[in-house]
# Entry
Amino acid sequence: MPCDGDCCHNQYTGLRHAAARPSRRAVVGMLAAAAAALPARHSFAQAPSVVAAGKDGLIDTHHHIYPPRFTTANLKRLTEDSNALPATAYTGWSPRLAIEQMDKANVRTAVVSMTSPGIWFGESEEGRIWARDCNEFGAQMARDFPGRFGMFAAIPLPDTEGSLREIAYALDSLKLDGIGLLTSYAGKPLGDLAFAPVFDELNRRKVALFVHPTMSCCGMKIPGVDAPAIDFPTDTTKTLTSLAYGGTFARCPDIKFIFSHGGGTMPMIVQRIGGAIRNFTPEQRAKILPNGVEAEFKRHHYDIASVAANPAGMAAVFKVIPVSRLLYGSDAPFGSTTAIADQLAKFELPAPDIAAIRRENALRLFPRFAA
# Structure
């Protein structure tokens, strides 16, 4: 059902209703109706900026947003896919609520992203519409709350043409901070050659690339257990492995990868993943993994969202990943900004290492947030 003017007029308020899966015509019609009720660009000008967190506050690289038009049209998809939050959690989200939660944990800046199930639902035109709408929403939010928000742009992968077009618009026109992807699309991990043209362009641009898990890996339901609990960390591990053995890491050395949740299950089974190298010839090894799998994984960045509350998991992360490659992530609104910040403060690490995870490591990727 298209969103009416009363529903869409204020980007900060909750939404009144959900729509069924929209057809291509319905999506175009909905956005046309919304455009008639709203200015050409998202606007938050009437909501005063709140700047309570100190300039030395945390930088959160794992923080999700729910643009109202997207949420209205896709609420059924969101609630069925995530299995984690009630509908009111999505419709009640707003930039002001995000800032309130950030301030409680002294988070100065959140580099936000869309999360699973993403903005591509199998139809290219629809995916392009939602990528553009969500990216413009995030860009306006960052302009109206200076210093508080950055954004990893959504792109409609596996639509190659649409993705390349949106990369150019998001980075060149909107000046967003990087690109956000899910770990797999249409059953293919990110190392699949079908995605090579997009990764080659991301490498050319030397982008920061945030990779968030989705559910495609397992397909076995366990009654009473939310699928993301197991599928998310497993899908991250599978896409890490595909990027390594498929040659994307070697071919695209200038992409600044950021993987969620401490790399999923990878730190716990890194030796098993490394054992697969025996299936490659010496020439292949030299080309795709000249220094081995573990050395390759150590090059990339990982946030501590979710895993920070798991001492055993963090022990594995610290064993495999250098502190210089770890980033603060809250997983808001799914996770608590304060809970992760509190856990970080309890790590038995030297103060400079805590400061690195809190802020300094992220500043090397996003130096504009130093001001």
